[in-house]
Structure prediction request, 114 residues.
Amino acid sequence: MFFTNLFNYLFWAEIIEFVGALVIIGYIVAALIALIRRLDIHQARLLVIDGVINSLSFKVAGSLLKTIELRTWQQILMFVAIAALRIILKRVFVWERAELANQIIPQPPDAPLE
Prediction:
């Protein structure tokens, strides 16, 4: 029974999405440890954002693998909606990470204010 699952693309899609979930959990644990050790909320937020960005890549890969099975227009539209949502979320998190990284970098005392 296990060997039949090795050639099932839906099985691998689920495995890839599960790895994405594990990535989020790992980054959240790392953020909690960083928060407890250093009490640095910005570093913890950066870690969580990095985890979400990396995890969304796994989630999109799993969704793309599932497209092999799309047979109806409703399934195709559902896939497009999910892919668009994940792409938008990834761009928002990348933007948020850049904003947060800019806040952390200290400005030199003689730098002009923007």
In short: Residues 73 and 79 are 10 Å apart (CA to CA). The longest helix spans residues 73-104.
